[in-house]
């Protein structure tokens, strides 16, 4: 089978997944078409058969939340930070400089535990920025479709927080970083043992499968439809599922199946775990371009309103909570490194995409299939880091306060401190 092929990094990745699982078992035994998304219908929901849907319908509570599609409102103006945004031409130059600098990087390997992802051209590299006014600046392969994978978790979470509220999601799933790989069974076990939320948080697989299970709907088909339409609305166009990726992932997702049933055993997933897993796998198989992703991120940057269609997809409060989750866990166990170096919320997917958001200013998406050991695109991380730095986008950009002369003095052990009364 193709998924047994062992590239240097991919092989490590696969082996690492297995060993985490084994360790967990030991521990366990010890203890843009502005209007199209509004009218577009998902013609079929293959994979969610009638019988499953009927079974789910019977098992679901009868309370149904209001319709998911947002109503059109004027977009809030994006807040201006203290540092002015560079012009579109300057951003274009920054994007091109980053692409030129990093396109020759050969580190990393395509994900190989999902066979369809191993075949994607490793050379593809695209970077797109969507600005506050909806303008797109892009370079490279920004129209190449790829599987959104884990970045979909952001939009399913947006749906759930919008439907149930931030407090309920915190209570039902948890919001703390696991510090473990995205598909860690060990994290589920440790949380359960420590009387924390077994699902961890909505951006790891356990939490994301739980997120899907909790989206209010009368049937599995409706649940999928609501998640998919939310993704479409964020993107401002009707997205489609890459059926090859979906089939490939369905045929090989035994580890995620283990997680789903483990969560059922801890009564976190109360419905049919295989249905939640199927919808989760389907959302991961949605095909996007770097341009789509940047538009989806710009909607979050803009407080939940798509800057091009002007549709309010989720509330500013929901968008803020989703961005907070991206900041604390968007790149899994290497999120700390990311935040330390780059300082903006981001989310990666094993398809090679990374989406980063500078709230109130812009979103940037980069796509390049080869991944590091944690499953994050190597070139996409570097490109985004460089552009966020060039635009002074870090949310932790500390600056002297108030313009006082004392504020601009370099800190030094040899410089005598001014009396506190003279401090700004
Ligand atoms: N569908 C993938 C999985 O569940 C998503 C993982 C990812 O992108 N990090 O393994």
UniProtKB/TrEMBL annotation:
- Listed Pfam families: Glutaminase (PF04960)
The record's EC number reads 3.5.1.2
Which InterPro entries did the record assign?
Answer: Beta-lactam/transpept-like, Glutaminase
Give the residue range of the signal peptide: 1-24
Annotated GO biological processes are: glutamate biosynthetic process; L-glutamine catabolic process
Catalysed conversion reaction = L-glutamine + H2O = L-glutamate + NH4(+)
Q: Which residues does the record give as substrate binding sites? A: 150, 205, 249, 256, 280, 332, 350
Broadest EC class? Answer: hydrolase
| Residue span of region Disordered | 41-71, 395-424
Q: Where are stretches of biased composition, namely Polar residues?
A: 405-415
**What keywords would UniProt list here?**
Acetylation, Hydrolase, Signal
Q: Extract one GO molecular function annotation from the record.
A: glutaminase activity
Quaternary state and partners of this protein?
A: Homotetramer.
HAMAP family associated with the record: Glutaminase
Similarity section: Belongs to the glutaminase family.
Q: What is this protein called?
A: Glutaminase
Which organism was this protein described from?
Labilithrix luteola
Which taxonomic lineage is given here? Answer: Bacteria, Pseudomonadati, Myxococcota, Polyangia, Polyangiales
């Amino acid at each position: 089978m193709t998924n047994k092929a062992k590239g240097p990094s991919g092989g490590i990745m696969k082996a690492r997944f297995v060993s985490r699982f084994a360790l967990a078992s030991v521990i366990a035994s010890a203890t843009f078409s502005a209007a199209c998304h509004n009218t577009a219908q998902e013609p079929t929901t293959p994979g969610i058969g009638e019988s499953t849907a009927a079974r789910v319908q019977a098992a679901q509570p009868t309370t149904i939340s209001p319709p998911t599609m947002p109503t059109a409102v004027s977009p809030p103006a994006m807040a201006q930070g203290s540092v002015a945004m560079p012009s579109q031409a300057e951003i274009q130059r920054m994007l091109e400089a980053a692409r030129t600098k990093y396109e020759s990087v050969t580190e990393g390997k395509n994900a190989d535990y999902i066979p369809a992802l191993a075949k994607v051209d490793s050379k593809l590299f695209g970077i797109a920025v969507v600005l506050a006014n909806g303008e797109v600046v892009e370079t490279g392969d920004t129209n190449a479709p790829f599987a959104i994978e884990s970045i979909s978790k952001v939009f399913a979470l947006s749906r759930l927080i919008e439907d149930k509220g931030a407090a309920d999601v915190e209570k039902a799933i948890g919001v703390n970083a696991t510090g473990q790989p995205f598909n860690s069974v060990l994290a589920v076990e440790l949380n359960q043992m420590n009387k924390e939320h077994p699902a961890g948080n909505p951006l790891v697989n356990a939490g994301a499968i739980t997120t899907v299970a909790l989206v209010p709907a009368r049937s599995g088909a409706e649940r999928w439809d609501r998640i998919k339409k939310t993704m479409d609305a964020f993107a401002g166009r009707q997205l489609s599922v890459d059926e090859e990726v979906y089939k490939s992932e369905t045929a090989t997702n035994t580890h995620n199946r283990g997680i789903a049933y483990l969560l059922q055993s801890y009564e976190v997933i109360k419905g049919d775990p295989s249905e939640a897993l199927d919808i989760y796998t389907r959302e991961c198989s949605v095909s996007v371009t770097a341009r789509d992703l940047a538009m989806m991120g710009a909607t979050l940057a803009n407080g939940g309103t798509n800057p091009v269609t002007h549709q309010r997809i989720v509330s500013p409060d929901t968008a803020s909570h989703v961005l907070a989750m991206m900041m604390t866990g968007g790149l899994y166990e290497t999120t700390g490194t990311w935040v330390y170096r780059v300082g903006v919320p981001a989310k990666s997917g094993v398809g090679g995409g990374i989406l980063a958001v500078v709230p109130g200013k812009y979103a940037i998406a980069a796509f390049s299939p080869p991944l590091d050991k944690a499953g994050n695109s190597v070139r996409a991380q570097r490109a985004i880091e460089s552009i966020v730095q060039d635009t002074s986008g870090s949310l932790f950009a500390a600056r002297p306060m108030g313009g006082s002369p004392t504020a601009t003095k370099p800190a030094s052990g040899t410089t005598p401190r001014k009396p506190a009364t003279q401090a700004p």
